[in-house]
Amino acid sequence: MGTISYDFGTQARFDAIAADIGSGSNIGTLLTPAVGTSDLLDYLTEKPYAASSIIWTLNLDAMPLYAIRADGPFAMHIFDRLRQFLSDQVNPDQRAERVSIPGYIDGSIRLSSGQNIPVLVPEIRGMYNWTTKAFIEACVGKPEDSEKYRSKMDGMTNFLNRVYYEIRNLGVEPSDRALNFAATNAFQIERIFERAVNNSMQLDQIEVTRSPICRTDSDCWDVVLYFFNPKKILEEARRAYRFTVDVSDIVPVLIGEIREWSVR
Q1: DSSP-derived secondary structure letter, 105
Q2: By CB neighbour count within 10 A (0-12 exposed, 13-18 middle, 19+ buried), where does 118 fall?
Q3: 113 in helix, strand or coil?
Q4: Are 104 and 155 in contact, with CB atoms under 8 Å apart?
Q5: Under a CB-based contact definition with an 8 Å cutoff, are residues 103 and 250 in contact?
Q6: What is the CATH code of the structural domain delimited by 131-263?
Q7: Are 222 and 209 in contact (CB under 8 A)?
Q8: Which DSSP symbol is given to 162?
Q9: Distance from C-alpha of 88 to C-alpha of 95, rounded to nearest angstrom
Q10: Residue 8, Cβ neighbours under 10 Å: how many?
Q11: All structural domains of the chain with their residue ranges
């Protein structure tokens, strides 16, 4: 998970694209480009095939983590989606905050800064983008003037922010992939927060452990969310909600049902 950005790799590639866009002599440099994101998006709308000449990157807090390389017979569909993701990020009415891009690592590439980063070949089935607000509203419905709605909204926002920032990761380890996939499937999470809010509970801890029981040829991980009642910390036991994610495929999948129990 992260945000979409781009790089040109070399000054020559940047100059060529900037000249093709039509910025004339005011081309600038890789560090101080005269070509902005809106110029680039307009250019790619007119000439979508040029998307393959750009190094698309997946960033976290402005740091490039992976270079995204579209491959296979549906490569143009991947480029179209990347262009749309970038457009949604800079659109003041949209402002998409996150993208999810599953895939497999294949080699590395050098950016214009000299940094070498892994190349990620994406699986288009799992490529999505969203805003946290719209993401949550899709699960809990339109805003309501009720304490229950606000509690559930605050709880889900807290969960997503903790995954985005407190326990952020590179998405390489199976446990990290399970956690990241859980964060992109808030409909499953929403059912957990529905139960927690009904019991006046708030999120306390997130834990990911290998599942002791798994299907053949699968890689199953249990994501456990622990909740507590802030008004009855000493009087009431915590509540654990567990669901299982199979990460054996490029795009993980949720399996089984949500289980819950009380813990000390």
Answers
A1: E
A2: middle
A3: coil
A4: no
A5: yes
A6: 3.10.450
A7: yes
A8: I
A9: 6
A10: 21
A11: 3-129, 131-263
